Amino acid sequence: MNPVQNELIKSGVVSLVGPPNVGKSTLLNTLLGQKISIVSPKPQTTRNRILGILNEKEYQIIMLDTPGIHDATSPLNKEMVRLAVETLSEVDIIVFIIDATHPLPEKGKSPARYLEGTKIPSILLVNKIDLLAKERILPLIKAYQDQCEFNAIIPISALKNDGTDLLIAELLKLLPKGPRYYPEDIPTDSTERFIVEETIREKVFLMTGQEIPYSTTVVVDQFKDDTEKKMTTIYATIIIEKKSQKGIVIGKGGKKLQQIGTAARKDIEKLLGQKVLLKLWVKVKENWTRNPSFLKEIGF
Ligand code: GDP
Ligand code: MG
Fold first, then answer.
1. Residues lining ligand 2 (ion), CB within 5 A?
2. Which portions of the chain are predicted below pLDDT 70?
3. For every residue of 116-167, which 3-state class applies, written as one string?
4. What is the residue with the minimal CA distance to atom 19 of ligand 1?
5. Phi and psi, residue 283, nearest 5°
6. From 39, 42, 97, 162, mutation site for ligand 1 pocket: most ligand atoms within 8 A of C-beta
7. Kindly report the CA angle at 291 between 218 and 250, in degrees rounded to 5?
8. What is the pLDDT of residue 50?
9. The pTM is what?
10. DSSP letter string, 34-61
């Protein structure tokens, strides 16, 4: 990375890792005060590496939201795990997140085993403490202390923005001195196009049943700005794997697709700060999750 400003501050890269669904993306959005990474109650929502940049006068924390570490069989999942583990070797601090409501993993089975042997400083976040009785928090932290060595263990609620100040304080203790790598006013390096695609995918995740989300990808075909009306028309295609899924995404009389479109449009209007007309299509591409050349085409 090339610095944009040479004055030394606290700066560096922090990787958010952990099993799927523990709140990695939620935490990144909360810290940024802005939604750049999509969130859903279903595991494996985040597919790519998302970068969020926390800017203050005295620091710049570059945070990577990775897909969860989990077992992989399909080529898409393998790629996601590769991304998650690879990011571990290129960062200044590893922030490992677990869900406070989950049972303690058996010895040696904790996903934190991926951190064994690394010399990189690490913090364990015990997230979702808003769902836990207060007296259960301390014993839980003790139990995790026995499992793995961390520089700090911090209970937080990413959703309620509780404990995040402690996290920042701890990060600042561990971060090296360095220059600012990104301009101060940029919260992410994701393009608007990418965030729009992800937003639509999130709504498909949230609004369709079991099998659909994992075989969905979204491509924005065109942005058309109307500067006079201060409005953007966005043409996007939802790509699914099987003909039989088309009816589910579109719904009776197009109702499901309409719901997906409305929810996505509201988020996109917030993101772009202007009125949006969202035109959605649904297209079948047989077995795209197992098609390496198509995966490459859409950026994996
Ligand atoms: P990721 O897969 O680790 O990125 O997890 P997400 O950020 O997508 O969150 C998974 C689910 O957990 C979503 O439904 C979130 O709303 C929920 N969640 C995340 N953090 C918290 C938290 O602190 N408290 C509660 N109650 N729910 C949370
Ligand atoms: Mg995520």
1. 24-25, 46
2. 43-48, 68-88, 108-114, 210-211, 213, 299-300
3. CCCCCCEEEEEECHHHCCHHHHHHHHHHHHHHCCCCEEEECECCCCECHHHH
4. 23
5. -130, 140
6. 39
7. 35
8. 84
9. 0.81
10. S--S---SSS----S-EEEEEE-SSEEE
